[in-house]
Amino acid sequence: MAFKYLCCLSGAENYGEQFSKCHMPLDSIMLEWITRKIEESPEKYGTIKRGKIPSWSAMSKAGNMQDKDGKYGYLFFTEKIEDICKAENKAPLQLDFENWRTMQLRLSAEAFLKAYYDEDNTSKAQYSKDLRRKTDYAVLLDVKNKVQQYL
């Protein structure tokens, strides 16, 4: 995280090569972002099972696959990050900067919509899956419509 903060300082652009070697800080927001990238392009990144993603604070090293409980380990995610970085020609820290805030806002919007979930429409699991497939713009429109509905 220290290098992430250093990137914000004046003159940091002069050290791009050093920053390119930094890892992406893994938190729940970036784990969700990585998971969605894998789900969007299984032909590029393989597959992932949602019930097997640990919280970042409980993650084991676990080789590059799964730990004894079947949860994905740290090395699994670092391997996927490397694959995504190669595909997008970007450094891990750069992807974090570009996607963390957007993903945080997206997850907040989804949480808002789930709070007003209508059980008559579909199962909550299916509703969550459908939300993940929508574009950011479509989710924001849903939030706008939901707010207007209650005003």
Computed structural class: mainly alpha
Number of β-strand runs: 0
Query: Strand content of the residues, in percent?
Result: under 5%
- Domains (count): 1
Q: Kindly report the average pLDDT value.
A: 83
Low-confidence stretches: none
Q: Can you summarize the main beta sheet?
A: none
Number of helices: 8
Q: H/E order of the elements?
A: HHHHHHHH
What is the terminal-to-terminal distance? 41 Å
Residue share in helix: 55-70%
Task: Supply Rg.
Answer: 18 Å
Give the overall silhouette. Answer: globular
Write a concise keyword list for the protein shown above.
151 residues; mainly alpha; 0% strand; globular
Task: Give a brief rundown of this model.
This protein has 151 residues and is mostly helical. Helix content is 60%, strand content 0%. Helix 6 packs parallel to helix 8 (136-150).
